[in-house]
Amino acid sequence: MRQTLWICGIAFLLFTGLSGCSSISAPESTPTSAPWKERLTSLSRIQDWNVNGKIAVQTTNDSGSATIDWAQRNSRFNIALSAPLGAGGLTLTGQPGLVTLIMSDGKRYTAKSPEQLLAERWGWQLPVSNLNYWIRGLPSPRSTYNGHFDMYNRLSSLEQDGWSIQYLGYTNVGSIELPNRITMSSAALKTKVVIHHWRLG
Fold first, then answer.
1. Residue 124 dihedral angles phi and psi, to the nearest 5°
2. Which residues of the chain have pLDDT under 50?
3. Collapsing DSSP states into helix, strand and coil, what is residue 113?
């Protein structure tokens, strides 16, 4: 897998997670019809969580897949990306003001933010921090957006900062519904995320 794919993978891995509660598998949800404002409030309160699953990324020159495991507690995160068949991996850890990327060969890179790290090391300009919100089925409060909703008042699609996000499935995690199948695309690349487990702490 080329380095280009790994960099795309890093950008898309900025979801979140946390150990603490037993993991929950991701069957399709039993929808509820809560108003969007009520969902927005409930989803925004989720600050400690973990997701693991698979991610597939496609650029104009490359494509591939990897497993992801993202753990987050409030503003601190730890993200692990592993390629199939032992092809390598990387870990991204951070908090506001400091992000560290550890490559499979042991090399380390640091920056003040994920966006800065990607821009400085590989020239990618991506709204990495938005993914913390998008993975929960939320628009980022950082910029304007155009959202569409299904009959249960859940986001079905979202356009924000040059990205198109499609929510293809939700799962019940305790008393709340969270996305478990998401596609995200921009002019430069496309990705699909399948979440096998959500864990709330």
1. -80, 135
2. 1-27
3. coil
